[in-house]
Amino acid sequence: MKTVVSIGGSVLVPDLDAGRVAEYADVVESLAAAGHDLGVVVGGGPTAREYIGAARSLGANEGELDQLGIDTTRLNARLLLAALDEDLASPTVPTNYEEAAESLHRDRVVVMGGVVPAQTTDAVSAALAEYVDADQLVFATSVPGVFDADPNEDPDAERYEEMTAGELVELVARGESLGSAGSNAPIDLLAAKVIERSGIEAIVLDGTDPGSVGRAVLDDDFEGTRITPDHD
Ligand SMILES: Nc1ncnc2c1ncn2[C@@H]1O[C@H](COP(=O)(O)OP(=O)(O)OP(=O)(O)O)[C@@H](O)[C@H]1O
Ligand SMILES: O=c1ccn([C@@H]2O[C@H](COP(=O)(O)O)[C@@H](O)[C@H]2O)c(=O)[nH]1
């Protein structure tokens, strides 16, 4: 089984807690031990947002801010790598999908961050899943799934238990503004579109508890949103 796990920076490093990173590394190792070929994509979290905010106030343009965000996601990827068994994971952070696929092909767990400006690691996760023909894609984020409105803004927001990729594209497109570096949404529009075209099965869940990712992948036991391929 080939699995791509997207770990939001907001759940891996809400603050710099080595214990939490170690818990996520344990989950990654347990999935690999269970036979999963694993690609892991790590987000930037609050650190990226702080750097982006500071650089924006210093006059950096959006492309420069995105590059700062990418560097932060790679820093977080390196942090997770530091906690992983060196015999298991590829020691470097790939900067493109070809490198990532090559490492996966050599049976190494791959951990990567951002790739190019003007997107988020949601899109990287979806593109990696598509590139390596993954069987499933798991988004571990700070909210328990995709809602009909931002659950942090609207107390009446309701979670979708299941939705098609096309419905996800519509929902995200409705909510997405022009998109600027460091912006937040459950899954960005590019990621939603890649999920739609590739027909990959995806789930979105609350990754605040790292164990929830393990239970979702190993036992299909999770509360969140299942994104299913569109029917022809
Ligand atoms: N319709 C929606 N459903 C779910 N979450 C939404 C929705 N609209 C906006 N959001 C926001 O999306 C965000 C998704 O989580 P977050 O920004 O923490 O991203 P992440 O991918 O987990 O990590 P990172 O911090 O690396 O970007 C939440 O802050 C939530 O408030
Ligand atoms: O491929 C990528 C990945 C990320 N960015 C920039 O980094 C920040 C942080 O990434 P998150 O996935 O949101 O944690 C993102 O907002 C972008 O500004 C990028 O440009 N390209």
Topology:
Blueprint (H helix, E strand, L loop, with lengths): L1 E6 L1 H4 L5 H16 L3 E6 L2 H13 L4 H22 L13 H9 L4 E3 L8 H11 L4 E6 L20 E3 H11 L13 H10 L2 E6 L4 H9 L4 E5 L4
Parallel strand pairs: 1-2, 1-4, 2-3, 4-6, 5-7
Antiparallel strand pairs: 6-7
Helix pairs in contact: 2-4, 2-9, 3-4, 6-8, 7-8
Bound molecules: adenosine-5'-triphosphate and ligand LLZGTKA7.
The site of the ligand O=c1ccn([C@@H]2O[C@H](COP(=O)(O)O)[C@@H](O)[C@H]2O)c(=O)[nH]1 has 21 residues, from helix 4 and helix 6.
Describe this structure in words.
The longest helix has 22 residues, at 62-83. Helix content is 45%, strand content 15%. It starts with a strand and ends with a strand. The chain has 232 residues and is an alpha/beta fold. Strands 3-2-1-4-6-7-5 form a 7-stranded mixed beta sheet, sandwiched between helices. The protein has helices at 9-12, 18-33, 45-57, 62-83, 97-105, 121-131, 165-175, 189-198, 211-219, and strands spanning 2-7, 37-42, 110-112, 136-141, 162-164, 201-206, 224-228. The model has no long low-confidence stretch (mean pLDDT 94). Helix 6 packs parallel to helix 8 (189-198). Keywords: ATP-binding, Cytoplasm, Kinase, Nucleotide-binding, Pyrimidine biosynthesis, Transferase. Homohexamer. It comes from Halapricum hydrolyticum.
